[in-house]
User: What shape does this take?
Amino acid sequence: MMYKVVLIPGDGIGPEVAEATQRIVEAAGVKIDWIVEEAGAHVLEATGKLVPQSVYDAIERYGVALKGPITTPVGTGFKSINVALRQKYNLFANVRPVKSYPGIGRYSDVDLVIFRENTEDLYAGLENRISPDEVHGIKVITRQASQRIAQEAFTYARQMGRKKVCAVHKANIMKQADGLFLEAVREVAADYQDIDYSEVIVDNMCMQLVMYPEKYDVIVTENLYGDILSDLAAGLVGGLGLVPGANIGDDCAIFEAVHGSAPDIAGHGIANPTALTLSAAMMLDYLGEKESAQRIRKAIWEVLEKKESLTLDLGGAANTQTFTEVVIHAL
Ligand code: ATP
Assistant: This one.
């Protein structure tokens, strides 16, 4: 089977980690016809647009994309491309698995999957300037979007044999908005008696994750809390070079690493491709190529465990190319 997947290498280290990822996926034996589309700061000058129309056309046509980082120029009035893509294609679930690797990061037993609602909350973009000295930012929570993300989290938990789902909220203060979110999640939880359901207030969750990350399993939460918790969680396991992500909608899915374009190391060939490669593994799961996805994860696990070919961000001396070749060898 030959799959067609849109590849957006993006800015900074994007093209370097994208090339590594393509090689690793190929070595895993999955045949992909990559539809390469350029987007990001480097095409802005030539086209006047961060994301040319052809990128949208390709995403709509093929429905699956692997995306590198796209830098949103600061202070230029550009809306975040990442937020725009999620809203445009109604990619309602942002899924971020955060897992420790042996001997890397501060903890040895983190194995979390964060399900972050991706389309509403304070990201709805509803800010009203009431007067020169007053702004109202509106938080939007709907029963439908809350149920949908909860459904996604519980379905995943059951499918993957995970035991616990924890909803993170601040309903003690935002009684109506977060109250509705919890009400919706509880309705879904009631259909999953086999899964241990709990609720934790977001500030407490920050402390819990730093002190006892091993106690948590699947986390389901609103957009802003999910954003903050997933960076916190990345910090528990050794940083941004390792954490993948998926944005899933009904008709379309975009897979991307949590990290940005890393301008400080771009062009040096030393970026860690693990985060994007693991995002590609999530994509292979989505396409039904679960066995190849698992082989890629296992190969990366082995290479990280041996520690001989770690990239700079993990304290090693290997460059992107060496690391990639070692992973391919492990495959
Ligand atoms: P952007 O504005 O594009 O989000 P940023 O510099 O704010 O970029 P990141 O690009 O995520 O944020 O980088 C944060 C730090 O993590 C940088 O020091 C960067 O070099 C490092 N980093 C991020 N991703 C990787 C990676 N894949 N490999 C190695 N180092 C990385």
About this structure: The mean pLDDT is 94. The chain has two domains: 1-104+238-331, 106-110+118-223+231-236. The chain is about 40% helix and 20% strand. Residues 106-110+118-223+231-236 form a domain with the Rossmann fold fold (CATH 3.40.50).
